[in-house]
Design goal:
GO cellular component, one term: plasma membrane
CATH architecture of one domain: Orthogonal Bundle
Shape: globular
CATH class of one domain: Mainly Alpha
Helix content: over 70%
Number of helices: 17
Strand order of the largest sheet: 1-2
Keywords: Cell membrane, Membrane, Transmembrane, Transmembrane helix, Transport
Family: Belongs to the binding-protein-dependent transport system permease family.
Main location: membrane
Strand content: under 5%
Largest sheet: 2 strands, antiparallel
Distance between the termini: 33 Å
CATH topology of one domain: MetI-like fold
Order of helices and strands: HEEHHHHHHHHHHHHHHHH
Protein name: ABC transmembrane type-1 domain-containing protein
CATH superfamily of one domain: MetI-like
């Protein structure tokens, strides 16, 4: 009887009266309508085309010459000049292109790892510790979300120049480690995912704050850490103005974004080679997103539901 009731019917109270409702009918009432499913499918397909079309066009255009880019069908291949464009890519960059890609990987990975740790430490501290000025500090972090990075580039250059760090890797990594959004996300996730009872039990057992954070809290904050790492990684990879200001005299320290800009500054650039370099430059980002996709999705939902 209990099994039958669990599968087919259930009861609930409303206005003091008991109703018996079929579970199958209740499930059907919660399903979206056929029209809603069709509209959702059409919108998702349109969004998919919107995001994948630039990549498709980039692949097509990277195999064309300058003449083909203007004369041929923009949505299909012409004469295959991929090998020629690659040779021009290497020749135009003096063989430094893959060095620039490696620099971007280094800068983005280092900034993402350091910035993620700093962000979750700051967010955890603001979420779980009561101290004087905590609310003011949270407002300052929120205000930092409103400041564009371009506004801070010149002050950062002055600071790095006074410290003698310009034309070094630290002039790009250190400013990129600070992420107000990462601190905000870390605080929101720590509030909902780190129970106070767990922290109190660990303290009663004699664990110090450092041990609690590095052995317990970091595991609970793993989804948020992946999301913060991705945001910092992408922001550092796509940053153009900061490397342009910081790296002026050392060709080998350029990231790929700055290197591609240098290729476009020539009098008569080979656009197919530049587009091929842009394609190679975006592949690491695509691979990283695909690899960390499921962790990123769970991290984006951090703090959305309070349980």
């Amino acid at each position: 009887m209990a099994e039958l009731l669990n599968k087919t019917e259930f009861a609930h109270l409303e206005d003091g009266r008991v109703y018996r409702v079929s579970r199958n009918a209740w499930s059907r009432s919660l399903e979206p309508s056929c029209f809603a499913k069709i509209v959702t499918g059409v919108v998702l397909i349109a969004v998919l085309v919107y995001f994948l079309f630039p990549i498709y066009w980039l692949i097509i255009s990277s195999t064309k010459t300058n003449a083909d880019l203007g004369d041929s069908n923009g949505l299909w291949f012409a004469h295959n000049a991929a090998a020629e464009n690659y040779q021009k890519l290497m020749g135009t960059t003096n063989g430094h292109f893959w060095r620039w890609v490696a620099n971007s990987v280094l800068y983005s990975t280092a900034a993402g790892a350091i910035g993620t740790l700093v962000s979750v430490m700051a967010g955890y501290g603001m979420a779980k510790f009561k101290f004087f000025g905590r609310n003011v500090l949270q407002l300052v972090v929120m205000a930092g979300l409103l400041l564009p990075i371009a506004l801070l580039t010149i002050p950062l250059y002055i600071v790095m120049h006074s410290l003698g760090l310009t034309d070094t890797i630290w002039s790009i990594i250190l400013p990129s480690c600070v992420s107000p959004f990462g601190v905000f996300l870390g605080r929101m996730y720590a509030q909902t995912s780190v129970p106070d009872e767990l922290l109190e039990a660990a303290r009663i057992d004699g664990a110090g704050e450092s041990r609690i954070f590095f052995t317990m809290v970091l595991r609970l904050l793993a989804p948020a850490m992946v999301t913060i790492f991705l945001f910092i990684f992408v922001a550092t990879w796509n940053n153009f103005l900061l490397p342009l200001m910081m790296v002026t005299n050392n060709e080998q320290l350029k990231p790929v974004t700055l290197g591609l800009y240098g290729m476009m500054s020539y009098f008569s650039p080979t656009y197919g080679a530049v587009l091929q370099g842009a394609l190679f430059g975006v592949l690491p980002l695509m691979a990283l997103f695909l690899f960390l996709q499921r962790y990123w999705q769970s991290g984006l939902a951090a703090g959305s539901v309070k349980g």
